[in-house]
Automatic annotation (TrEMBL):
PROSITE patterns: FA58C_3 (PS50022). InterPro entries: FA58C, Galactose-bd-like_sf. This is F5/8 type C domain-containing protein. Pfam families: F5_F8_type_C_2. It comes from the Eukaryota. Residues 1-157 form the F5/8 type C domain. Gene3D superfamilies: Galactose-binding domain-like (2.60.120.260). Residues 1-35 are annotated as: Disordered.
Amino acid sequence: MPTPITLTGSTKTASSGSAGNTCDGATGTTWQTTTTGKETYSTDGSYARGVYYTIVNAARIYGHWVQVDLSTARAVDSYTVQNHTTLKYSPVDFMLVGSPDGQYWLPIDTRTGVTWSAVSTTLSFTVSAPARWRYLRLIVTRNSGGYYTEVNELTFTELTSAPANSATPPAASFNDARVAMTGVSATASGTETAGAYTPAAAVDGYLQVARGPNSYNTYWASPGQDGNELYYGGIYHGCVYTIIDEQQVYGQWLQLKLSSAVAICQYTLSNGVTPATDPVSFVLAGSNNTSYWSTIDTQTGIVYPSTLSSLMFTVSSPVRWTYLRVVITATASTVAVGCPVQIGELDLVEKLDAPVNLTSPTVAQPIYARVYCKGRPTAQSTHEVLLDSSYLFDGYTNQMGNPVSGYKTYWGSINTSNMKVTST
């Protein structure tokens, strides 16, 4: 006969948040996962960027978790989950797992697509094959679309007549893992003058509108008010470059300084909110001194399916670098009007067993470089000036290309030799 398991005095832990609130018998308290950074959930409810995982039956399951140490092995035959006061923070896909040592785990029960019709609701679930485990862990792999997950209360019943457990969770190890962005600093070749779209926004874990605590789009945008540094028809004509494998690679760039040297085996690059600003061609490069760089991966002709979307890329030969730089050589803009580039998020996966890097980027000094014309002396015409001659150096080459002034930007003169002056 099922018997309630008393959780008073049991040890509770969690990936984040106050684990004790889920098993305290008080419906007014809740376990809430972290509300900041890459450890939040995406708009589809998935745990797409976080680093917390559990090894279940030799597989790696990513998601926030809450755990109870029962002190002795118990055979759980049913359990309940109560959500909190906001539906979007309710767990939708989750797994109850058991372990004899809290290190490796086996599934007890798995649920997908759970529907919550109201807040502060308790749902009951039955375990088909009860087995005795000392440690229980609830892993939430997807919620209802909130950027964190909340669980008010967990309860368990046990089948006291269950036989001793003969199963042992298989051990497993992995040679890759998502890179936590704690301590990572981000810089860039330039930033949109509005000031909100800083390099840090590309590694803050937030991609969608109103996901973060400040409720705005979070993406990095390169300078958008300087004609010299925009992309025209998707092509970059500016002066910013990076020396990669002894070559000058021109394009705005986003750079990360990692807390230690990391060998990237996969990375995900997300776009922003304007299709014309999508990164289409780019180079991911690595360095240990930020002066000279080696190619990690090169992509061309990339097409994003929509705004605020993510694409994953695989690195063929991972090498450890302390600095990473994405150099965007072309954008999706198909019109002559100048556009900046936007990057919503950069996520990394590292190869843990990569050897120590014994190579260094080749030292090179360029002989030629494009001249940055903003702020140069105004050109003077030998004839009467029709339009301000400084427009020759403003970086805008097309009609209506200047978003600041909103008019054609070219220099012209008129021939005064045939003009007649009359008096009235």
